[in-house]
Design brief:
binds glutamic acid; alpha+beta; single chain; three-stranded antiparallel sheet
Length: 420
Amino acid sequence: GLRRLAAGLRVEFRAARTDRHGQQHRLVLGAHHRLCDRGRHPVHHLCHAQTLVARPAGRRRVRPLPLGGPGCPDNPDSPDNFDGFVRTNRSGRPGVTGPIGRSIAGPIGSPGRRSEEGTTEARFHRESGKRETTDQITNKPTTMTPKIDRQHVAQALRGAYDRVKNTTGGKNADYIPYLANVPSTLFGIAACLTDGTVVAVGDTEYRFGIESVSKVPTALLAMQQYGAQEVLDRIGADATGLPFNSIIAILLENDHPSTPLVNAGAISACSLIKPVGDRDGKWQSILRFVEALCGAQVGVIDELYRSESETNFNNRSIAWLLKNYNRIYDDPDLSLDLYTRQCSIGITAKELATLAATIAAGGRNPVTGEEVFRAELTPKITAMMATVGFYEHTGDWLFNTGLPAKTGVGGGIMAVIPGV
Ligand code: GLU
């Protein structure tokens, strides 16, 4: 089902701007899936970049930049492939010497930010619909006009939805009794673009248990409070290659809980959240942070919280085993309870899409305009998602889609394409 869903997705971003020397730069950035000629599975085509430079005389130079992104065996000249951010060098001439697609081929960076030589820093301006850019050398603002085709995104979602809506395989997670009773016919897809446009199809207003998708905001919050390096030192950022609740992974890596995106690391991340020792204060920090990311008020589904609290014996063992290895930085029971509560937050697909778009936009919620976290954390969290977002199946997912994404046993999947 996921493969078929991926096969129907196509997202595209276009923009153009004229630099101060009168040269026009056009760019197209996007992702889509289609069936590979050589196999029967979808291949993600977010793996090549081109910069089209329209010269004043009208002559056009096209430079394909193979980025070697995941899962793309095909040639870079295909019209199906996509372009990256245009950069100019110090002399103001279009410079395509650097890895311009770093922001779109995982591990993924925040939109249009970095360049040794390059100058463009892009931020979307909601009211005017313009993409504001700042020349990092001269500090002068320039503009890029986005041409995101909302209709195109809507069609892609509808197409993907129609392809998989009758797929009935799989089954609900039932080790948490509440989840076993969630209607399995519910299905919705929402996309939020970095201009704040939300496109949705299906059951996108239903509030389902966020479950492990909540590991993403808490990892971000821990990095926001402590800095990315300290989270790396205290928790880690490695794939375990093992199931989400693995105890063996802790024994094998007794030095680290591996990553905040598996249960052990997520409980450890909850223990880090400030103010340490203050149960309510910590919970408010997490809840407010999730709300700021998704631009909506959210709350705990009480029945889910009770159901999970009564049955989370494996997670209790994890919390105390981590304590044994000095990888819990607050009271173990308090940390576990916070983790269970955050997993019980009810969220809609639309809210999850906005959360993803806030990450894609480098920490600025594109719907509310709030600066929620520091832009440098986007590539850190998308690297974690790309590494272990689907636990031991992450490689298969990434191979097929190229998208950093995070699952939850409540049925949610959240994917991020930075800058789009
Ligand atoms: N709360 C769930 C657990 O700890 C989350 C698992 C998941 O969504 O992957 O078991």
